[in-house]
Amino acid sequence: MAAIDLWPDSLTESETATLAVDTHSQATGTFPSAVVVAPANSIVMGGFTEHVGGSVLTLNHAEHICVAISPREDDAVTVSFHSLDSSGNWHEDMSSCQLITDPDSAEETPAAATSWAESARVLIMELSNHQVLPRTPHGYPVTAFSTIPTAIELGVTGAFFSGLALALADLSDPRDEAPLRLKLAGLAHRAAERALQRPFTAARYHAVLRQAEPGLGIVNFADGSVTATGSPFGEFPAVVIGSSMGTDLQAMAELERRYRFVHHALAAFNVDTLAQLPDAPTRIADWVATTISVSGHGDLPSARDAHEWLTYLAEDTVRTTEFITHLRARHFVEAFDLFKDFPTDGYTNSGAFAEPVASAHAVWDVLSRAGAVATRQLHLGRTDTTLGLFHPATIGELAGTSTDIDLIGVRVRPGDRAHHIDPLTL
Q1: How many CB atoms lie within 10 A of CB 64?
Q2: Are 394 and 368 in contact (CB under 8 A)?
Q3: Inter-residue contact 2 to 407 (CB < 8 Å)
Q4: Contact indicator for 256, 420 with CB cutoff of 8 Å
Q5: CATH number assigned to the domain comprising residue 50
Q6: What residues pair up with 390 in beta bridges, in sequence order?
Q7: Is 367 helix (H, G, I), strand (E, B) or coil?
Q8: Where are the alpha helices (DSSP H) in 109-234?
Q9: pLDDT of 243-271, one tens digit each?
Q10: Are strands 5-6 and 408-411 parallel, antiparallel or unpaired?
């Protein structure tokens, strides 16, 4: 039997930034030109609703990544990525690649990035193509220190892309303004999807870069706003728990297929969100049936599956909107009651995935035996990462709870959005 491995409380941002600045200076012989800290982030509720023009509830954590960069004369991109383990030890992952400056040499369908440097290269080219960086960018040495656990889903990819985007933008335009952060959130999200060739929730990137206050926030895809909100958790301490075996590749592949389907449907009806299409489930199901009869099935779901999936999206939007309405009205008791009864993303009978990640059952069992008063699986059901709320008197029992699989627990502490740190003040 194993016990839950509680993640150590993060180093302060200043401590992490000092490590990044010192390591960068020693490795490159150059003081970093920009230093940015970006938080870990969880998708708490409504993760599917961005396609519907709905709202997503996110949580910025105190765990964070610090990125230090400086320009160089050649086309080399190097990333020295240092990750923290649960024992407080650092592990370095060093990678490098060259920028693709000749468009004719670029692959039409490039392979997915296999290193942090290749991911950084995609982001640099994305920013260059959209005039954030010069049209002929040069390389960069990047030093990153991350206190975000990589074994469970807390958004280390989103933090890296968002933090690096803000740092790169600072080199060409040091003005840190809201329109720039909005643009960077979209470009960082697009670059992450292009680099790793799988869908990511856009809300995470907007929360990390644009949410003005720590903790819970609302990303509204109807009007593009990002606002901080009060917490319905009240006096209940919260812990995020997951396992390194908790990513379901089959569920992820199915989610990718459904994302592609929704994007295809939006393009077919020339709308940006499903909210702009009256009676969307029925109309799109009819379109699917007609397309299949004329052109064959292809990658499209059946008309029935399409209708069920789109109905689920609409229902999820209504539930999330009701919850957020309670939050904004500061009706925290009602919001908490709704949170406890809120169906887990992706595991209902209305057209999402058939079964949860196998290890999720072990996580739920541990949280139940430890006395959790409410639980919610996070991140669209693709992983077993779960948020558990506890009575203050019983939270101490969590660390001693036995489990059949290795689990990591991270105490929920609010974190600030991505921001610059002046290395001269460290």
Answers
A1: 28
A2: no
A3: yes
A4: no
A5: 3.30.230.10
A6: 372
A7: helix
A8: 116-129, 156-172, 178-196, 202-210
A9: 766 555 666 677 777 778 888 888 889 98
A10: parallel
In a domain, 315, yes or no: yes
Residue with tokens 């991140």: 379
Residue 2 lies in a domain: no
Same-domain check for residues 218 and 255? no
- Asked if 180 and 242 sit in the same domain, the reply is no
Q: What is the DSSP string of 198-233?
A: S---HHHHHHHHH--SSEEEEEETTT--EEE---TT
- What CATH number did the domain enclosing 252 receive? 3.30.70.890
Instruction: Report the sign of the C-alpha dihedral through residues 242, 352, 338, 230, in that order.
Output: positive
Backbone angles phi, psi at 260, to 5 degrees: -60, -40
Nearest to 222 by CA among 36, 52, 404: 52
Domain residue limits at 76: 10-229+417-425
How far, in Å, CA of 353 to CA of 348, rounded?
8
- 372 and 390 Cβ atoms separated by less than 8 Å: yes
With CA atoms as reference, report the closest residue to 306 among 339, 268, 356, 363. 268
Q: Residues 216, 355: one domain?
A: no
Residue 145 phi, psi dihedral angles, 5° rounding = -120, 125
Contacts of 85 (CB under 8 A, 6+ apart): 91
Q: Residues 160-201: pLDDT tens digits?
A: 999 999 999 999 888 899 999 999 999 999 999 999 988 888
The pLDDT tens digits of the residues spanning 285-344 come to 899 889 888 887 777 888 888 888 888 777 778 888 888 888 888 887 888 777 765 555
SS3 96: strand
Does residue 1 sit within a domain? Answer: no
The torsion angle over the Cα atoms of residues 394, 246, 324 and 177, rounded to 10 degrees, is 110
d(CA 239, CA 385): 10
pTM of the full predicted structure? 0.89
SS3 336: helix
Task: Answer yes or no: is 130 within a domain.
Answer: yes
Question: Into how many domains does the chain fold?
Answer: 2
What are the tens digits of pLDDT across the range 353-363?
A: 444 556 677 78
Question: How many CB atoms sit inside 10 A of residue 290's CB?
Answer: 11
